[in-house]
Amino acid sequence: YQAKRDRTGVEVYESKRDSNTPDRLGLLGDLRRALDAGDVELHYQPKVRFDGQVVGLEALVRWVHPDRGRVPPDEFIAIAESSGLMPYLTEYVLESALGQVARWRSQGLFVPVAVNVSPRDVHTPGFAGAVAARLARHGVPAGALQLEITEHVLLEDPQRAADTLAGLTGHGVKMSLDDFGTGYSSLVHLRRLPVSELKIDRSFVARLAIDTEDAEIVRCTIDLAHSLGLVVVAEGVEDDETWERLRDLSCDAVQGWLVAAAMPPHEATSWLLARGETGWHRPPPAPALEP
Ligand code: C2E
Ligand code: MG
Ligand code: MG
Ligand code: MG
């Protein structure tokens, strides 16, 4: 048996993996070709504070398959992760996102961008240095890049993960803990991971306004994060009531369809420009509930 490698050195097929159905292998090959061809896009979703300040944009990968149509990121990211294509996908996303950050900066839009990285990336030797080199190549300061990680980075080799994350923060890259509250959460991880931001998973935020237990979980998470000096972002905010509740709980920022869905680059640019030249301006005020 010999693993095939494409021109990027990415392992594309391992015959010993029986779980790779023909369908998955087909998608994997298509994804690799789409990345080679530049057919994978990034959309950008704003993170805003309650005073309207835009604190960043999250880059979310979008792939429209020629025959199958839009493939959900969760689906093809799982395929990329289990095949060894993930580092290539992450390079692609970082390259694309940093190019966009540089263009926005040249337009006077100094807004940081967050990129999701998978546990695999954090365990790739030399990842921190490669990110720093990429930043330099684009002339983008490290403070304009944020990396979103999940607690899963600690599953495989906690020491290596810690080293990589220390390397990244040492370069000035900000780390954010994504999907907090799902699956593998433990308070210990909050202490171990050098993150400056915590994102409360959408599953808790969605029912915040109607479920008292979820509301209590969110309240405790915000208080805990604040006591550790972290900025708290709630994801998946879809309505005014949830916005109001989060504001009352002293959450720092929100992300969600109430503010904006993830937008293609040109739309995100218009969105940012409509809110000021500097990227530090208020979105349209949330509908006032008080007279
Ligand atoms: P995530 O990082 O937690 O991203 C948030 C997800 O919630 C996105 O789904 C976003 O479109 C969706 N969302 C945002 N606002 C709302 C809302 O108000 N309501 C609802 N119902 N959903 C909302 P998406 O784009 O399908 O991404 C799914 C996951 O895929 C992401 O979750 C992230 O873990 C992963 N992902 C996306 N892009 C990348 C990438 O470039 N690299 C890696 N490694 N993972 C990525
Ligand atoms: Mg994320
Ligand atoms: Mg998230
Ligand atoms: Mg999530």
From TrEMBL:
Keyword Hydrolase on entry: no
UniProt keyword annotations, A-Z: Membrane, Transmembrane, Transmembrane helix
Signal peptide range: none
GO molecular function: cyclic-guanylate-specific phosphodiesterase activity
Domain EAL: 24-276
Name listed for the protein in its UniProt record: GGDEF-domain containing protein
Organism: Streptomyces niveus
Lineage of producing organism: Bacteria, Bacillati, Actinomycetota, Actinomycetes, Kitasatosporales
